[in-house]
């Protein structure tokens, strides 16, 4: 069999395959024999249908198509083996199948074109001597006090207030109803759907509601009714009222103030597993210090990786991209499932193509990062000792004793993580990293650690359903 190769874009190898005349005849005859054994034609015993009758009933096109399918499949497989190509994914027929049927003559050579994806050729123009900037995240002692204060607020006792007006920090129970301000004189105010509630309890705090609402309640006394002017922000989710002025008729029914629990050992025992306030403070401080160090480390690695892939040249094959998209969507589905979300409702035949398309940029980025790190390891012969992998696997198996853990899969993950750590360690040692103040390179919001791991109850109060329309979004 004659096979000619050519390089194609997107890490494909083009193949021009010539099937010998004897093999094309052999395949055609074999297909006829198969049809003869399986055909059930009235007047003839199974397997005894004359060749000419079979051709008339089935048609030569159908038989030639079946023979072609066999020739193409076996031809591509043999060509890949003969040319010693390390193919990935499924081969693709480049020739028109309809044209091949018209040109195919049993007993004569058959020539067709195909393509196979292969691993991309990697060129990393520079990986040593990188010069990057990374944000340094410093430990903020105020975070400890913030967590403790939030828990005090959460466990405050509400005490009825008499003899004074409402002030910031109080909790009020109100009735309210909202109206849009008429755009022209003489028009009737339009009631805002969803902007009303009875016996609604809320804390008076700056920025909690749309502009003007809380400030208007401050100074009111129980039993007082007042019309308050407010303004919906431009970016408000309900577009029909975004940016428009409104008025709310508000009646204060009850007024309460918070009595905060004392910050002592009893309080520490109530909100955590620790016996003393000092232990709780120490644990929070350690966690926040470790988090700051971890974020700084992540920032340095991210900066190195971003610069590294700028020097990477790799023509990614479609097979690799599609496989990475599959992996991303699988991870997303698993995360949503763990949150109790019915993924079948989200991943439908209509949404999956859109999700796949949106996932492509991230898939390509992840592949480039992975290939760049692999190339560094290859060039510098960076490896992980098997003993280190086994030790870490043993440690994790003991930590998750009693759980159904796939040891082989765990070993693969540990191998990859330890190797990645060694690669980054090498890159840091052979690069110049300038640490700059947090926030100076980007405006990403700080990701807080999950304080629930230390403190049993959440420090964030739940939002009331009645604030859907009145409360401004955090972005505002």
Give a description of the structure:
The protein is α+β, with helices and mostly antiparallel strands and 476 residues long. Helix content is 43%, strand content 20%. It contains 13 helices and 13 strands. Strands 7, 8, 9, 10 and 11 form a 5-stranded antiparallel beta sheet that branches. A 4-stranded antiparallel beta sheet has the order 1-2-4-3. Strands 5-12 form a two-stranded antiparallel ribbon. A hairpin with a 3-residue loop joins strand 1 (2-8) and strand 2. Helix 9 (318-338) crosses helix 11 (351-380). The longest helix is centred in the middle third of the chain and has 34 residues, at 277-310. The radius of gyration is 35 Å and the shape is elongated. Its main location: cytoplasm. It catalyses: [protein]-peptidylproline (omega=180) = [protein]-peptidylproline (omega=0).
Instruction: Give the biggest sheet.
Output: 5 strands, antiparallel
Q: What shape does the CA trace take?
A: elongated
* Number of strand segments: 13
SSE string, helices as H and strands as E: EEHHHEHEEEHEEEHEEHHEHHHHHE
Given the structure, what is the number of helices?
13
State mean pLDDT (0 to 100 scale).
Answer: 88
Taking the alpha carbons of the first and last residues, their distance comes to 70 Å
Beta fraction of the residues?
Answer: 15-25%
Rg of Cα set:
35 Å
Sequence stretches where pLDDT stays below 50 over 5 or more residues:
444-476
Determine the fraction of residues in helical runs and give it as a percent range.
40-55%
Structural class: alpha+beta
């Amino acid at each position: 069999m004659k096979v000619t190769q050519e390089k194609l874009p997107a890490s494909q190898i083009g193949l021009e395959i010539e099937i010998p005349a004897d093999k094309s005849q052999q395949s055609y005859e074999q297909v006829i024999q198969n049809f003869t054994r399986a055909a059930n034609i009235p007047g003839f015993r199974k397997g005894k249908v004359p060749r000419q009758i079979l051709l008339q009933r089935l048609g030569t096109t159908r038989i030639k198509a079946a023979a072609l399918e066999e020739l193409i499949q076996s031809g591509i497989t043999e060509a890949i083996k003969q040319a010693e190509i390390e193919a990935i994914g499924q081969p693709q027929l480049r020739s028109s199948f309809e044209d091949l049927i018209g040109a195919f003559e049993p007993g004569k050579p058959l020539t067709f074109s195909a393509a196979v994806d292969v691993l991309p050729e990697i060129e990393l123009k520079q990986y040593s001597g990188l010069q990057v900037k990374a944000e340094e995240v410093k430990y903020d002692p105020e975070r400890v006090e913030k967590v403790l204060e939030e828990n005090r607020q959460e466990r405050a006792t509400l005490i009825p207030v008499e003899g004074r007006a409402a002030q910031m920090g109080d909790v009020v129970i109100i009735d309210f109803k909202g109206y849009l301000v008429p755009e022209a004189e003489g028009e009737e105010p339009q009631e805002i759907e969803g902007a009303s509630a009875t016996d609604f309890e809320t804390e008076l705090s700056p920025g909690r509601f749309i502009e003007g609402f809380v400030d208007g309640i401050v100074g009111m006394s129980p039993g007082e009714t007042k019309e308050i002017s407010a303004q919906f922000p431009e970016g408000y989710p309900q577009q029909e009222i975004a940016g428009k002025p409104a008025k709310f008729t508000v009646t204060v029914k009850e007024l309460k103030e918070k009595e905060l629990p004392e910050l002592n050992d009893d309080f520490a025992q109530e909100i955590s597993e620790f016996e003393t306030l000092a232990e709780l403070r120490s644990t929070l401080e350690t966690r926040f210090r470790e988090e700051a160090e971890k974020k700084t480390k992540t920032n340095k690695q991210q900066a190195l990786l971003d610069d590294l892939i700028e020097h990477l040249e790799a023509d990614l094959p479609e097979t690799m991209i599609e496989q990475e998209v599959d992996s991303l969507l699988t991870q997303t589905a698993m995360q949503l499932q763990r949150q109790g979300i019915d993924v079948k409702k989200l991943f439908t035949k209509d949404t999956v193509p859109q999700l796949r398309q949106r996932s492509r940029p991230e898939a390509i980025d992840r592949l480039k990062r992975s290939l760049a790190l692999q190339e560094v390891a290859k060039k510098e012969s960076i490896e992980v000792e098997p003993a280190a992998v086994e030790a870490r696997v043993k440690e994790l198996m003991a930590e998750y004793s009693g759980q159904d853990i796939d040891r082989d899969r765990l070993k693969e993950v540990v191998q990859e993580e330890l190797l990645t750590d060694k690669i980054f360690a090498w890159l840091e040692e052979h690069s110049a990293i300038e640490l700059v103040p947090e926030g100076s390179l980007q405006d990403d919001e700080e990701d807080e650690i999950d304080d629930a791991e230390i403190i049993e109850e959440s420090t964030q109060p739940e939002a009331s359903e009645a604030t859907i329309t009145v409360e401004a979004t955090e972005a505002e």
